[in-house]
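Below is a filled-in request sheet from our internal design queue. Each sheet records the structural input a requester submitted and the sequence that came back. We keep these sheets so that new team members can see what a complete request looks like end to end.

REQUESTER: design group, bay 2
PRIORITY: normal
MODE: inverse folding
CHAIN LENGTH: 650
BACKBONE (tokenized):
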């Protein structure tokens, strides 16, 4: 993140298309326009009403304690058990036979787990963790593939008040050990491995390697997923023995609303990863409410599918805590979208009759690249809400998603939020908002997001600047684990009394919000701040382009010159004329100032496990430097392939 925000962002892209919800959708929607008025009239009363959607063992004394800002406490004095809110209360309400998880393994193995079965397994796991000496307040690191046991492990930790810290399966031993160390974890829960891209991959050896430098860890609980050979140490315990052999009787104890629920590490571009701390009552209130409101979940009839990994905050809030607190039936898929074929996602939607799909722009752009004919082979008519998260969604990708996946009629909700915010902050409401391709639009009821200039003054409609949050919100991070000072410096030091999200944004003439990417990625061309997002969206609006990543490379004349890395759609081919046409297309769409100095065709782009493009690595290529730290890449061999491709193409 840039130390100080620079000048106001140029505002280049405009969008006139809007899609109001159908009257039928509005009629049946969970949340209506009245929610905005209620929250505007009394924000705290609004959140108090949302907290009442949960079961509390003890009522709170105060909704918000903001006596020592920016250290917030929500629902102080209140007590609840997060796991009981996700499981026990549904079973007590006679919903034990409802499927909680339709699991689809990558090799094609399937399991349907009901709420009663999930509760049974979580109770056993809670007992097993207690038997292994884990107590309330002890930290547990979870390093697993996308299998039901990952959710079981999280809910069992929550049940006994042991904060979990989930690390992406696939992170290196060094990344894993630095997180285990920072959290001071006592136990690691992992699997032998998982399935990805048609092959079994191993996790346990990485844990063994990581633990060489982690003295805090006493035991490792290992789930058998692939059955591959693994080295066995004295500290290792088989999940099947410990959990399988434990009692399924377990009474969940209530914890304070501010009891730590989890720590999740954000990669951060430099320095050591930040352990974002979330607590119980406020977090669950907002995760649960936003899931109900933004996806319009009808738990009796909907089949919900969030394609995120459990190691990303999206997996925490919108696979585990939000959906399960609402009693959702959901699909959990272990693998990649192109195994064994590029229609795998659509085959799953058709098979389970998925009604609500939540995925990332990176996936949508990949589907565009694979071609319209792939989803067209499947029956996707069950879908009624489509969501997007993780990066700005280019207007063309948004329109493609609605057309080719949503049959031209489903609302598309572009949801802006962060690990730090814990839950969705800015998004359309599907039964209320006339949606606009590419815009996340409005802060949700009870949330006060704004765009300010470098002095911290709100920009008028039509202006661009920095996204801030003016008032505390229930699921906000409470601090950075073990480092209050870094919490203050990172988020609260830029603008007086406001949370700085690190993202650039603009307000259009209707006051709708457009996210323009991380402030560190913003380019400075001939004295103008230009967002990577807008140039990328202009490129993606060309019929031959599926995906684009744009960086500013130092330029002797303009300060920075725009270099675009482009992936072509389907069978498209490039030529010098085509490259010139792409550059001209950007100039025509956004103005001459945004015309790329260079367009480079590539087959893939460097992305994190949650699908975010790592522009910093592309900047290294554009400026002909040694490639920087690649440890958080989904595939750390991609950079050498991109480089080789470039050399080969010269
Ligand atoms: C949930 C999640 C947070 C950063 C955030 C922003 C980007 C996420 C977005 C979006 C534009 C959206 N981001 N959703 N940008 N539109 N709908 O992604 O959390 O991994 O912590 O990343 O992702 O830059 O600041 P996290």
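RETURNED SEQUENCE:
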């Amino acid at each position: 993140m840039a130390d100080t925000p620079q000048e106001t962002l140029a505002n280049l892209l405009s969008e006139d298309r809007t899609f109001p919800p159908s009257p039928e959708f509005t009629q049946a929607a969970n949340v209506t326009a009245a929610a905005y008025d209620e929250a505007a009239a009394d924000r705290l009363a609004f959140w108090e009403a949302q907290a009442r959607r949960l079961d509390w063992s003890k009522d709170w004394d105060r909704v918000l304690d903001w006596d020592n800002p920016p250290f917030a406490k929500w629902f102080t004095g209140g007590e609840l058990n997060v796991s009981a809110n996700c499981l026990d209360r549904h079973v007590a309400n006679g919903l034990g036979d409802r499927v909680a998880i339709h699991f689809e393994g990558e090799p094609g193995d399937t399991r349907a787990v009901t709420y009663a079965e999930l509760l049974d397994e979580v109770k056993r796991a809670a007992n097993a963790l207690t038997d292994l000496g884990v107590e309330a307040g002890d930290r547990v690191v979870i390093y697993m593939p996308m299998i039901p046991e990952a959710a079981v492990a999280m809910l069992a930790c929550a049940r006994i008040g042991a904060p979990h810290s989930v690390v992406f399966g696939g992170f290196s031993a060094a990344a894993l050990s630095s997180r285990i160390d920072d959290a001071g974890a006592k136990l690691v829960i992992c699997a032998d491995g998982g399935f990805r891209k048609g092959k079994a991959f191993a996790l346990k050896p990485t844990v063994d390697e990581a633990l060489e430098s982690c003295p805090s860890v006493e035991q490792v609980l290992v789930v058998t997923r692939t059955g591959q050979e693994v080295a066995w140490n004295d500290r290792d315990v088989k999940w099947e023995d410990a959990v399988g052999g434990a009692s399924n009787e377990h009474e969940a104890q209530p914890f304070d609303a501010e009891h730590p629920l989890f720590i999740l590490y954000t990669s951060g571009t430099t320095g050591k990863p930040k352990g974002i701390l979330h607590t119980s009552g406020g977090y669950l209130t907002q995760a649960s409410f936003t899931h109900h409101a933004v996806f319009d979940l009808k738990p009796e009839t909907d089949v919900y599918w969030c394609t995120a990994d459990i190691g990303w905050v999206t997996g925490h809030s919108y696979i585990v805590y939000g959906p399960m607190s609402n009693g959702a039936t959901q699909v959990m898929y272990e693998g990649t979208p192109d195994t064994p074929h590029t229609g795998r996602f659509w085959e799953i939607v058709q098979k389970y009759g998925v009604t609500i799909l939540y995925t990332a722009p990176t996936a949508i752009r990949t589907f565009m690249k694979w071609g319209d004919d792939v989803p067209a082979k499947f029956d996707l008519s069950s879908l009624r809400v489509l969501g997007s998260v993780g990066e700005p969604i280019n207007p063309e990708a948004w329109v493609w998603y609605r057309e080719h996946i949503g049959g031209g009629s489903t609302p598309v909700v572009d949801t802006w939020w962060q690990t730090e915010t814990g839950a969705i902050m800015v998004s359309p409401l599907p039964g209320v908002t006339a949606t606009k391709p590419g815009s996340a639009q409005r802060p949700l009821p009870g949330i006060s997001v704004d765009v300010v200039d470098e002095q911290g003054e709100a920009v008028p409609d039509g202006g661009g600047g920095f996204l801030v949050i003016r008032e505390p919100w229930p699921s906000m991070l409470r601090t950075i684990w073990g480092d209050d000072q870094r919490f203050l410096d990172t988020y609260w030091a830029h603008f007086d009394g406001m949370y700085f999200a690190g993202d650039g944004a603009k307000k259009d003439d209707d006051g709708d919000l457009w996210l323009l990417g991380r402030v560190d990625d913003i380019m400075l061309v001939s004295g103008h701040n230009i967002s990577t997002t807008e140039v990328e969206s202009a490129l993606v609006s060309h019929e031959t382009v599926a995906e684009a990543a744009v960086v500013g490379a130092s330029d002797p004349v303009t300060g920075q010159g725009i270099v675009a890395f482009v992936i072509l759609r389907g069978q498209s081919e490039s030529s010098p004329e085509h490259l010139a046409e792409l550059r001209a297309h950007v100039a025509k769409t956004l103005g001459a100032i945004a015309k790329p100095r260079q367009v480079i065709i590539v087959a893939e782009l460097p992305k994190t496990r949650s699908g975010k493009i790592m522009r910093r690595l592309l900047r290294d290529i554009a400026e002909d430097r040694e490639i920087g730290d690649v440890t958080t890449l989904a595939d750390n061999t991609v950079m050498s392939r991109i480089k080789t491709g470039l050399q080969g193409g010269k």
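SHEET NOTES:
- Residues 1-6 have pLDDT under 50 and may be disordered.
- The CA atoms of residues 462 and 508 lie 4 Å apart.
FILED BY: M.R.
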